[in-house]
Amino acid sequence: MDSVSQSGQLFHIEVMQGIYLISCDTARTPDHGHSLAPGKPTGNSYLVVGEERALLFDLAADHPGIRDYAQHLAGKPVQLVLSHGHFDHTFHLNKFSEAWLHPADEKLIREGMLGIPPVDPCPLLHPLQDGDTIDLGGRVLDVINIPGHTHGSILLLDRQTRTLLSGDTGARRLLYGSAGLVSLADFCAALNSLQNREFEVMYSAHDRCALPKAHLAHMIRLITEELPKTTKRWSYPGFDEMVWLVHGDPKCLNYFDMVCPASYFAGKTEYSPAGHHQTV
Ligand SMILES: [Zn+2]
After folding, report:
1. Which residues are paired to 178 by β-bridges?
2. In this structure, is residue 119 part of a structural domain?
3. d(CA 12, CA 208)
């Protein structure tokens, strides 16, 4: 099953019945192997297999053979869905003829970001909205939009296994407000109501470990109580000054690391639904 390239070797692990984590060994994570233990950040795609079709969530495993690999593993047509439009979730997107994502993130793909050029050729992009369902035949996934990491970030809830594929939103590392600011209060309220959904564990795009549902309450507590107090700063080309909260050890499940634009606390600039930034 494995195919080899400069990016490493693709592999898969069935983490739940009919849900496969697909990733590849890269030079960036040499000590990771195929372990599902908490550790350094990785790039994971997930394949959810229904009776008629399969769904590939994200192109976060940076490998040119991911499309064929997923198709072969599924043995049936594969629909590509993106959790959001960031470049590290859209590797080799130009090899696909169509993809589904939230329209608020289309711009990131069509116009590029952080000096990374637009996807070319760009596949046909279909909109997915909060509340949509995707029926793979005998298996239904719910689409949940939570603006925060990006405005168009979505999560998928697999009703069959009660598993949440949480992208970069329900995660141990959160780059907040990377494409415009969203109220932290609104974000925490969305995480809070997510706790009422029927699932037991989450799988994120950059961790291979299963995250318990209780991780959401942990995130909310750290965001509301610890983040405003943090004095640590994070900088990266193309980003504004960011405050940086680091909690715990990456090898422990409860690790949490978050960066958020410092302007959020300085100027109370918040995202408005009309898409304009306003200072209140
Ligand atoms: Zn992202």
Report:
1. 180
2. yes
3. 11
CATH number of 173's domain: 3.60.15.10
- What is the mean pLDDT of each successive set of 10 residues along the chain, which is 280 residues long? 55 96 72 80 95 97 93 97 95 96 95 86 97 98 97 97 98 88 92 97 96 97 94 83 94 95 70 36
Q: What is the pLDDT of residue 113?
A: 81
At residue 1, the pLDDT reads: 37
Asked if residue 248 belongs to a domain, the reply is: no
Q: Ligand 1: distance of its center to the CA of 176 in Å? A: 9
- Is pTM beyond 0.70 here? yes
CB atoms within 10 A of CB 230: 17
52 lies in which domain range? 4-215
Whether residue 256 is contained in a domain is answered as no
What is the CA(14)–ligand 1 centre distance, in A? 24
pLDDT at 33: 73
Three-state DSSP state, 245: strand
What is the number of structural domains in the chain?
A: 1
* Ligand 1 centroid to residue 174 C-alpha, Å: 9
Asked whether residue 117 is assigned to any structural domain, the reply reads: yes
Ligand 1 geometric centre to CA of 138 (Å)? 30
Instruction: Report CA(113)–ligand 1 centroid distance (Å).
Output: 11
- Ligand 1 centre distance from Cα of residue 179 (Å): 10
